Amino acid sequence: MSEPVDVVLIGGGIMSATLGTLLKKLQPDWKIVVLERLSEVAQESSNAWNNAGTGHSALCELNYMPEGADGSVDPAKAVAINEQFQQSRQLWASLIEHGILDEPSTFINATPHMTFVRGEKDVAYLKKRYEALRTQPLFAGIEYSEDSRVINQWAPLLMQRRRKGEPFAATRVPAGTDVDFGSLTRQLFDHLSGEGVEVLTNIEARKLRRNADGTWKISFRRTLGRTPGSLDARFVFVGAGGWAIKLLQSSGIPEISGYGVFPIGGQWLKTSNPDIVAQHKAKVYSQASVGAPPMSVPHLDTRVVDGEASLLFGPFATFSPKFLKNGRITDIVAQVRPGNIGPMLKVAIDNPGLIKYLVGELLKNHAKKVDSLREFMPTAKDEDWELLQAGQRAQVMKKDPKKGGVLQFGTEVVTSADGSIAGLLGASPGASTAASIMLGLLKTCFPDRIAQWEPELKALIPSYGQTLNGRPDAARASVAETAAALEINV
């Protein structure tokens, strides 16, 4: 029997790439193996065309700061998301300095983040949100306007042929970013391969079983030839998107009981027309439709992929029972267990608006989707935009002591009691906060080593163990330093 490897990372996305990079810096002697079921890494949620690349920092996303029943707005979650993104920025800046990442423009570019709303109710909400955020150090520079001339300077496509008398407002943060997570992921895995990490593609992990000595047996199948195989590991991370729940369930750890996932696909409208692209340099978010899942907030985005700029609008929700873009139609049924069927049924009962929303989205043809775009961009023409299939998102459903079951926005790490296996469930803001999520995982899964790792972690991520927003001088300095290192020139 061969000796167990130290770490197996299942899934070739940004989460595995980030964790592998951190572990290789912290424990260069460890044997690390990556298993990816497709022929290349970064082909699912980390692929640039499967996500918005917003660099989620709560600068423009309203769902991180909902209005309370009493009309109040609490900036706490928005600040926390921004703190997490700052850690990602710090890590990327350090990796550039160490020669692990290429030139910043190969994966990150300055792109203002905006929020645009219409109607008196949403205008009043956006102003309250602005007032709550403008004094937060990490949101320094946020601007607010109800003046069409000002908004026209920020994003002309929003204002052309806009109906007179319609209430509208916008906020803008010039220091936002567009991130090509596909390029970033590939660069990290290229470095890991050069450092002796085995990055194995066309390998589909099928089952996880605990060995008598506490290690894990990962049974897999080669997708080319379909021949089986296995390897043992002391620690396993399942960063396989929607596939993660299937593998965590197969492991038998009690911590996964009660969890389910609801798959939601998406489509974008895309244009590469240079005349249109030249008129819009921003990521502009608005309010979600009634019943829409939080990840379906409409937005008109500048994207820079492989050095080429384009615009995306969407996402338009689609439905597939698959947990991955390249998943199986049996995925949604295969996850059902006695422990999660109750919470899943409760979510279905409590969210009729979601079903209605999905049906409405599925009935939209290309022309209807361009009609939705015209709410943002009144001058949009059908012939300038093409439909692009985005990735699958598996939104978390879980037990709730009060409601029985809830549909949860965001990401969640599920870890065994002994810390020998962990997996990531959920979606946005995932990729943008990968550094923070993986730092939390290191603390939970390696409590006996974290103290000796902290000097290296603080060198890579200077704000490690601290918050920035409560220290205005530190926040300003950190944002400025990473902006310079990442060449985010506003």
From TrEMBL:
SUPFAM superfamilies: FAD/NAD(P)-binding domain. It comes from the Bacteria. InterPro entries: FAD/NAD-bd_sf, MQO. Its cofactor is FAD. Its EC number is 1.1.5.4. GO terms for molecular function: (S)-2-hydroxyglutarate dehydrogenase activity; L-malate dehydrogenase (quinone) activity. Pathway: Carbohydrate metabolism; tricarboxylic acid cycle; oxaloacetate from (S)-malate (quinone route): step 1/1. Keywords: FAD, Flavoprotein, Oxidoreductase, Tricarboxylic acid cycle. GO terms for biological process: tricarboxylic acid cycle. It catalyses: (S)-malate + a quinone = a quinol + oxaloacetate. NCBIfam families: mal_quin_oxido, PRK05257.1-1, PRK05257.1-4, PRK05257.2-1, PRK05257.2-5, PRK05257.3-1, PRK05257.3-2, PRK13339.1. Belongs to the MQO family. This is Probable malate:quinone oxidoreductase. It comes from Microbacterium dextranolyticum. The gene is mqo1.
